[in-house]
Amino acid sequence: AGVKSYAAVDLGASSGRVIVGRVGPDSVQLSEAHRFPNRPVRVPEGLRWDVLALYGGVLDGLRAAGRVDSVGVDGWAVDYGLLDADGALLGNPVHYRDARTEGVAEKVWATVPAAELYAATGIQYAPFNTLYQLTAARSTAQFARARRVLLVPDLLTYWLTGEQGTELTNASTTQLIDPRTRDWSYEVAGRLGVDLGLFAPLRQPGDPVGTLRPEVLAETGLSGPVPVTAVGSHDTASAVAAVPAAAGERFAYICTGTWSLAGLELPAPVLTDESRAANFTNELGLDGTVRYLRNIMGLWLLQECVRAWGEPDLGVLLRQAATVPTLRSVVDAGDGAFLAPGRMPERIAQACRASGQPVPGTRAEITRCILDSLALAHRRAVLAAQRLADHPVDVVHLVGGGTRNALLCQLTADACGLPVVAGATEAAALGNVLVQARAHGLVGDLAALRRLLTRTQPLTRYTPRGDTGRWRAAEDRLGTR
Ligand code: LFR
Question: Looking at residue 222, what DSSP letter applies?
Fold first, then answer.
């Protein structure tokens, strides 16, 4: 009794899933209804998302999920689809790893200097920020026909419901939001000639969006009405909401997946010049919080190697990597040079050679180099965030796909010199489900939501094995300290 079901649609860079969460006063249970690949496609004009295939996967997932009390959609950030005056999609959304934004930021900075842009939006420099993507798109024939910009989770929500909106947590990644007012930065948009009228009105996590369209009900075999609820539609916002922090705990978090997003949950943004120089971002979270974090290349480095090697068994690879000596060679996992797809094993070997370290030769050595490098980048981000925000922590919560990788968790604890608590693997889906449950009165505030998590979710604790000095020395080797 009192148990309700919520479907979380969670779109990651390498796969999408529909996960059903059953939430009661003292229970949260996730089960995967459907998982489908997300395969970017390279066409002559560049790297594109196959968003129709994703939507098809979502419909299959909803059919498999069966009767639910509500649906919520989250996904990766910054990318968007354009709609014409009839509300029809104009082309495939461009992938954030596409090369079209090369050199674009510099053009934007000629109008609004980087320092002013950071002071106004708090968003780190990344070539793919929506602002730079829109700038790159502006001169295209397609853009001339565009009447609406919908971020990817908002686009799928629109197809499911017919309702258009711009969910706030994901909107913050456009670099067009002021993190102090949590509204558009009219000044930045005005100076750069970005038409904010292209965006649908802002909506907040927890807002009711609408119901599944009759055609969607017919296609999925569901009987209506099925409400759709806005969640933290940026996957990282949903994942941070699902960090099982205890009341009063001083914590950092690392959301691991294709990216590692490492940082702090803060009550207010940090907009100092030092913070900008360290490339920390101030994305918006639930309940007035700020996600103060840094983007680290993440398991993308390993995914790309595994792809290049013809998909060998990951379990075997990780077991072999565990026997390779620690910190033989490391690369800067924060380096944008690793952003583009392709030839990853060679690029990693090359980076080791260039920094005068032993060049990893075997697959196990390359894998170990990646894991050590990620742990080192985690350390660097966790240390820098505490210093820049003047916000010391006692524990690191690690959530997402990386929780399955015990070696990565242990190395992260060793490198940070802090205990690591590994929580939910499907953290984004969990946060998505809980925000829906909260909107329907099943859970209280963010603290209550986390109390429910600490009571119900299995957690694994990794204790640092001492010797952070070796990690500090490795940072010196790379010159990233
Ligand atoms: C993680 C993520 C990151 C964002 C990157 C690109 O899935 O959403 O937070 O920086 O993807 O959108």
Answer: -
Looking at the predicted complex, does its ipTM rise above 0.85?
yes
Is 287 a catalytic site residue?
Answer: no
> Cα-flanking dihedrals φ and ψ of residue 200, to 5°?
-70, 160
Could you give the CA distance from residue 291 to residue 391 in angstroms, rounded to a whole number? 13
Catalytic residue chosen out of the listed positions 10, 74, 154, 235: 235
The per-residue pLDDT for range 305-364, each reduced to its tens digit, is 999 999 999 999 999 999 999 999 999 999 999 999 999 999 999 999 999 999 999 999
Which is nearest to 413 in space by CA: 450, 371, 451? 371
Tokens 């700020």 belong to 290
Nearest alpha carbon to residue 352 among 306, 378, 338: 338
User: How far is 342 from 99, CA to CA, in rounded Å?
Assistant: 13
The identity of residue 481, as a single letter, is R
Q: In Å, what is the CA distance from 194 to each residue of 86, 132, 145, 198? A: 21, 11, 15, 9
User: What is the spatial distance between Cα 15 and Cα 23, in angstroms, rounded to a whole number?
Assistant: 24
How many CA atoms within 13 Å lie on the side-chain side of 32? 11
Q: Which atom of ligand 1 is nearest to the CA of 428?
A: 7
Q: Could you give the angle at the alpha carbon of 405 between the alpha carbons of 410 and 261, nearest 5°?
A: 85
- For ligand 1, say whether the CB of 96 is within 6 Å of any of its atoms: yes
For ligand 1, atom 1, the nearest C-alpha belongs to 76
Q: What is the Å distance from ligand 1's center to 218 Cα?
A: 33
User: Which residue, by CA, sits nearest to atom 9 of ligand 1?
Assistant: 236
Identify which of 331, 418, 419 has the alpha carbon closest to the alpha carbon of residue 367: 331
Tokens, residue 363: 């697959």
The answer for residues whose C-beta is within 8 angstroms of residue 147's C-beta and 6 or more apart is 83, 84, 85, 198
